[in-house]
Design brief:
Blueprint: H1 2-19, E1 37-40, E2 46-49, E3 54-57, H2 58-64, H3 70-76
Antiparallel strand pairs: 1-2, 2-3
């Protein structure tokens, strides 16, 4: 999730640098986010790392279950939602 925000800032900064014209002073600065990660361990379980705790089991699995954030990513990129084929 954080990589998306970082990538958007990098793209904006690159565009300003390519256009030139003294816009270098308008470059954005990335502020690092706290380390958070969720890794699936199958269909129903996962491990989640938050700044002060690591959780294993169904709860992090429920956070990441479903489409594994594919739908959100497609929406953010302006693409059609993923349609399940029967």
């Amino acid at each position: 999730m954080y990589a998306t925000g970082h990538a958007q800032l990098v793209a904006k900064n690159l565009k300003l640098l390519i256009e030139g014209g003294g816009k270098e002073n308008k470059l954005g600065t990335y502020k690092a986010q706290p380390p958070i990660s969720i890794v699936s361990l199958g269909r129903k379980t996962a491990v989640a790392q938050f700044p002060f705790i690591t959780v294993l089991g169904r709860l992090p699995g429920m956070i990441k279950s479903g489409d594994l954030f594919v739908g959100k990513t497609r929406k953010d990129l302006g693409l059609e939602p993923n349609v399940k084929k029967s």
